[in-house]
């Protein structure tokens, strides 16, 4: 898999999924996603809308805080 950012992100995702899946059947599971993204030139309105759409497709809240 290597140490590329994409490989490490995939490994973290798989690890989180393995941990959270143990609680998925029980009510009361909440999860929070925090990410910091700082591309040169800032975020375009299109990229923000694409992000909200992707969150929606995952069944996650589209209530995001872009600063």
Brief digest:
The protein has helices at residues 5-20, 45-57.
Structure in words:
The protein has a domain at 36-67. It is built from two helices and no strands. Helices cover 43% and strands 0% of the residues. The chain is mostly helical and 67 residues long. The model has no long low-confidence stretch (mean pLDDT 76).
Number of strands: 0
**Runs with pLDDT <50, length 5+?**
none
Distance between the termini: 33 Å
Structural class: mainly alpha
Task: Return the average pLDDT rounded to an integer.
Answer: 76
| SS strand fraction | under 5%
- Per DSSP, the total helix count is 2
Attribute tags:
67 residues, mainly alpha
Protein topology:
Layout: H1 5-20, H2 45-57
């Amino acid at each position: 898999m290597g140490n590329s950012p994409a490989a490490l992100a995939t490994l973290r995702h798989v690890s989180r999924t393995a941990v959270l899946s143990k609680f998925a059947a029980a009510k009361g599971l909440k999860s929070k996603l925090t990410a910091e993204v700082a591309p040169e030139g800032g975020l375009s309105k299109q990229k923000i809308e694409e992000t909200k759409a992707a969150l929606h497709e995952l069944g996650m809240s589209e209530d995001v805080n872009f600063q």
